[in-house]
Amino acid sequence: MTTEKTLGENDIIICEGVKKWFGDFQALKGVTTNIKEREVVVVIGPSGSGKSTFIRCINRLEVHQEGRIIVDGVELSSDVRNIDKIRSEVGMVFQQFNLFPHLTVLQNVTLAPMWVRKKPREEAEATAMALLERVGIPEQAAKFPGQLSGGQQQRVAIARSLAMEPRIMLFDEPTSALDPEMIKEVLDVMKELALSGMTMIVVTHEMGFAREVADRVFFFDYGTIVEEGTPEHFFTNPSHDRTKLFLSQIL
Amino acid sequence: MTGKIILPDIPELEFAPELPPKGPVVWMKDNLFSTPRSSFLTVVGLYVAYVFTKGFTGFVFNYAERRWDAVTDNMKLLMVYLYPNGTSERILDAAGEPINQMHRVWISLGVVIALTALSLVFWRVGGKMAPKRITRTLQISGGFLLFVFLGVTILDYVFGVLFGFDFGGWEWQFSTKVHFWTILVGVVLLGGGLLVDRAMGDRGKEETISVIGLLGALAVVVVGLLWVIELPRLSGTEPGAPKVFQPIEETTTLPWTIMLGVAFLSYWVGVGLRRVIPDRAGTRVLTLAWLVSFPVLVMAVLRDPGWDEVVAPGFSLGNYLTIGAAFLVVGGLVIWAASHPAIGEWSAAIVAAIGVAIVFSWSVSMLMFIRFSLFAVLLFVLGAKTFGGATQVRRRYLLLWAGLMVFLTYFFILVKGGNTVETQTPSPFGGFVLTMIIFVSVMLLSFPFGVLLALGRTSTMPIFRLMSVAYIEVVRGVPLITWLIMSIIFMPFALPIGANVPDFVLVILFYAGFSAAYMAENVRGGLQAIRAGQKEASVALGMTTVQTMIFITMPQALRTVIPALVGQAIATFKDTSLVAIIGLLDFLALAQGTVPGQPLYRGSLRTMLIFAAFFYWIFTFSMSKASQRLEKKLGVGER
Ligand SMILES: Nc1ncnc2c1ncn2[C@@H]1O[C@H](COP(=O)(O)OP(=O)(O)O)[C@@H](O)[C@H]1O
Ligand SMILES: [Mg+2]
């Protein structure tokens, strides 16, 4: 598959020696990497290797203790105003969807634009409907999340993040909680998003997706990036033994 | 031969086999006498039911000393105590006689009824009910009547004549006529219910009857009965005077008929309005109307405040209006500035300045109105980052401020005005009106306070957590009665000199503080039940901690604790009766003290207590039913 998009000049995310401990347990052992604008990075690796912790550090759902993370030119620090700004620039999609069960689909999507971006309701609703159209479920707008299938819920979650017009999207195993027949509908939305030029970091074990849209693949193990490269590199001649072992287990 | 695979036909859907309907004998065998042990329990249960029913119905309907006339004669007293006895010259007529003020009570009730009817429409309460539920109710009432009047008579005969036991009970000798008619009614209800059930078959299970319609019909029947029924009254002013049957007075029947009209009219107006007003706007306006109606009804309609020298010495209406206007304008400017997106560090400076002003206002002699208005400004400035922003949003925020300030001014003018409607009690109110005022005020005050305490207790800031825990543990560790007594014994010393706060207000404040501690624990339970992912998803969208709390965590937490909160509301309602201990004449105090204390109604205590219990039960039972419906309705949003 050839993509028309060109990566940006600038590094939109810069990580330098990011370390993170949970109590005595070190979950990240010095992650260093730069991610360009419009780049799509797929993160793979065994369970417990720190993939989630890594992307959660990028929107500061987790606080790293050492090293530097610079997102869109702003360094993540304990300064509160930076955090709110970064979070509204960085969208996140969770494995468990985390839709707000007491709000309708439309309210889920319009809430943050109205209260964080301070958009008038009419404008927020128009944007929301356009986004629900884009992810293919405009007819579900008035329903509650509990009335939707898993695949539809995850697409709403994506629309909810997109409504904030983020510059970066983080996906933490977005299809792992889905029944097999629903995985494709979510991946299709993500592919379309990738082709549209969104900067994305995707934790996933969907190798087809990685092969098709990833610009780069990170292999995480023991809290650090063990190997990185293009999808071709990974699927033809991975260099590390641990990478080979992992790929042989999941492919 | 082609290699064609022949698929088997998809099998037809089959219905589960229908069980033959069970007759009552089979049902009894399956449910009541299935094993020796269950037979034994059934017999014991029947025996207990027999003893209690005999004693209770005997007392209610047949005991010579029952005094239902004490209830009906004193109904007004029980509801409003000596309400209309005005002492101010404002409510004396030309001849110097007090003008009857009961219309104020009826107007208040009418407003509540109208709001209820409109709310039923806009929240779409009601829905349909299966006829089977009604026929089942008829059958049960018929069965009960038969058990009482046939069953008890037979059991009496069996125990008494055959075995020589006499279980006593209150004069269980109804006349043959009463027996005949009651048994007939029982047979008609039971048999009719069964027949209708049988005739309707499966259609009886379809939900076709409108609940609201049914309630409306019931209300019409009850109000209609007021006009035709005759109640026993004492014929003279002597305690032992014989009773005569008299129709209910027009001062009762006429207002209730008007109330019925108000209910129907409001309902139909609501139905019409819903065609032109969207539900969301309607429910919002109604919520606001409910919140505002309570203080306005209590402070303005029932009290009829006056501002002249006689009833409110030293009060100056002009002062309050000026202060209110000043706060509206100056406060508005400050809030307008604070909600500007580029306010930055200046916001903290404004907050600090107002903080200093508040501390100052409490340390010198100052009108309560100013102190509270300063608090309101602070709240709005603090909320500016969360609720302000774009110009359109800021304008709406400012409008909200103006609304609040108008209401605050109005409220303080009402509070400071004197009562022109007074009674000779420690509080301006008594009877069931006082019970309701205490109950609603306590719930309204303890809810926000309880939520704040819950937030404090779950806060990451140790100082808030410590203060909340200390408050909750101390308050819950001391009996409510102790707090109530303390409220009037100690509080007057703690109040600023000259602050003349009525007892019932002190009681309400203490009771609300007590209730808030329990409220906090309930809400905390709800907060803990929310998955961490909800908060994460919200902050990941850029929402602030406060926004996350208001839009995501709190609504979900409150939903999950509705049963607990309703339980608490019911407990609060019942425990309002404790105020009798400190001399407030609430509903129960009148029913168990005042009414039986009158020479004319001596000996009516037992009757009054049964009535009081029944009266409380009607309200608590409605509350628990309403909460069940609410739970079901809100359940839609959950998995
Ligand atoms: N909140 C936490 N507290 C303690 N340990 C944690 C926490 N979150 C993650 N961990 C630990 O950090 C390690 C990395 O977790 P995670 O980033 O979720 O891995 P992955 O997403 O790759 O499966 C795991 O061993 C996990 O147990
Ligand atoms: Mg993970």
Give a quick rundown of the structure.
The complex is a heterodimer of chains A (251) and B (639). Chain A is an alpha/beta fold and 251 residues long. Chain A has helices at 51-58, 80-89, 105-115, 121-134, 150-162, 180-195, 207-213, 231-236, 241-250, and strands spanning 11-22, 25-36, 40-44, 66-71, 74-75, 90-93, 168-172, 199-203, 216-221, 224-229.
Radius of gyration of chain B: 31 Å
Number of strands of chain B: 6
Structural class of chain A, by secondary structure, is: alpha/beta
What's the order of the H and E elements of chain B? HHHHHEHHEHEEHHEHHHHEHHHHHHHHHH
Number of helices of chain B: 24
What is the residue-averaged pLDDT of chain A?
A: 91
Strand order of the largest sheet of chain B: 1-2
Count every helix of chain A, treating DSSP H or I runs of 4 or more residues as helices.
9
Total beta strands of chain A: 10
Gross morphology of chain B is globular
Oligomer: heterodimer
Structural class of chain B: mainly alpha
What's the overall geometry of chain A?
globular
Which chains make the largest contact? A-B, 31 and 31 residues
The neighbouring-strand order within the major sheet of chain A is: 6-7-8-3-9-10
User: Radius of gyration of chain A, Cα only, in angstroms?
Assistant: 18 Å
How confident overall, as mean pLDDT of chain B?
A: 85
SSE order and pairing:
The complex is a heterodimer of chains A (251) and B (639).
Chain A: E1 11-22, E2 25-36, E3 40-44, H1 51-58, E4 66-71, E5 74-75, H2 80-89, E6 90-93, H3 105-115, H4 121-134, H5 150-162, E7 168-172, H6 180-195, E8 199-203, H7 207-213, E9 216-221, E10 224-229, H8 231-236, H9 241-250
Parallel strand pairs in A: 3-8, 3-9, 6-7, 7-8
Antiparallel strand pairs in A: 1-2, 1-4, 4-5, 9-10
Helix pairs in contact in A: 3-4, 3-5, 4-5, 5-6
Chain B: H1 24-31, H2 36-62, H3 68-73, H4 75-80, H5 102-122, E1 128-129, H6 131-162, H7 176-200, E2 209-210, H8 211-228, E3 230-234, E4 243-247, H9 250-276, H10 279-302, E5 305-306, H11 317-338, H12 346-363, H13 368-387, H14 391-416, E6 418-419, H15 431-458, H16 462-476, H17 480-489, H18 491-494, H19 503-528, H20 532-540, H21 545-560, H22 562-575, H23 587-597, H24 605-634
Antiparallel strand pairs in B: 1-2, 3-4, 5-6
Helix pairs in contact in B: 2-6, 5-9, 5-10, 6-7, 8-9, 10-14, 11-13, 11-14, 12-13, 13-14, 15-16, 15-19, 15-23, 16-19, 17-19, 19-21, 19-22, 20-21, 22-24, 23-24
The complex binds adenosine-5'-diphosphate (ADP) and magnesium ion.
